[in-house]
Amino acid sequence: NIAQIYGLEESGSIRALVMELVPGDDLAVRIARGPVPLSEALPIARQIAQALEAAHEQGIVHRDLKPANVKVTEDGTVKVLDFGLAKAVVASDSGGHQTETHTLSPAETGPNTVLGTAAYMSPEQTRGQLLDRRTDVWAFGCVLYEMLTGQPAFRRSTTSDTIAAVLGGQ
C-alpha cells in the first residue's frame, strides 16, 4: 500500500523521485465531503496501517502522514504517498527508540528541526526531537479521527495554536 518508486532523477542540486501514478482522489478530498462511514473507514485505515507497518519494518519513518498523502482508488485500494520527509532508522536503543537516523530528504531534518504538517505532528515532532515509528502512529490516529469525524483533531487558526493544541492535548 505504498506508491512504487521507479527511479531517482537528479538535475543540478534538485533530486526527484519517479513514482507510480496512482489514480483517484486523496483522502483529504474524500473527507471534505463529510465523515467517512465506519464501514468505509476501517478498510482504508487497515491499508494505511499495513503501509506504515511495511515502511517501519524497513526502518522508514514517514513523518508526514496526513489525508492529502493517502490516495484511495475507485476500487478501494489505498496507497500512501510522499515520503519526502521520511527518515531511515539506522540504530535504536534497547527500547526500540531511534538513536541515529539517515535523512532520505535533501532538506536538513536533524534534531531540533521541525518539519511536517502541524495538525498531524506528534508532540515529539513539534519539539524537534528524535523520532521513531510512534510519530507515524500518532499521525495515523489523527487521520483516523479526521476520517470518522470529518474534522482535524488539532487544526487551529494558526500553526502556533495548532502546535499548542498538540502539545497540550486539546
Q: Secondary-structure element order, as H and E?
A: EEEHHEEEEEHHH
Largest sheet: 3 strands, antiparallel
Helix content: 25-40%
Q: What is the strand arrangement across the widest sheet? A: 3-5-6
Number of strands: 8
Shape: globular
Low-confidence stretches: 97-109
Query: How many angstroms separate the termini?
Result: 31 Å
Q: How many helix segments?
A: 5
Mean of all residue-level pLDDT scores:
81
Rg, alpha carbons: 16 Å
Q: How do the helices and strands line up, and which of them pair or pack?
A:
Elements: E1 5-11, E2 14-19, E3 25-26, H1 27-32, H2 38-57, E4 60-61, E5 70-72, E6 78-80, E7 87-92, E8 98-103, H3 123-126, H4 134-149, H5 159-168
Antiparallel strand pairs: 1-2, 3-5, 4-7, 5-6, 7-8
Helix pairs in contact: 2-4
Report on this structure.
With 170 residues, the chain is of the alpha+beta class. It is built from 5 helices and 8 strands, in the order βββααβββββααα. It has helices at 27-32, 38-57, 123-126, 134-149, 159-168; strands spanning 5-11, 14-19, 25-26, 60-61, 70-72, 78-80, 87-92, 98-103. The strands form 3 sheets. The protein has a 3-stranded antiparallel beta sheet. The protein has a 3-stranded antiparallel beta sheet with strand order 4-7-8. A two-stranded antiparallel ribbon has the order 1-2. A hairpin with a 2-residue loop joins strand 1 and strand 2. Helix 2 (38-57) runs antiparallel to helix 4 (134-149).
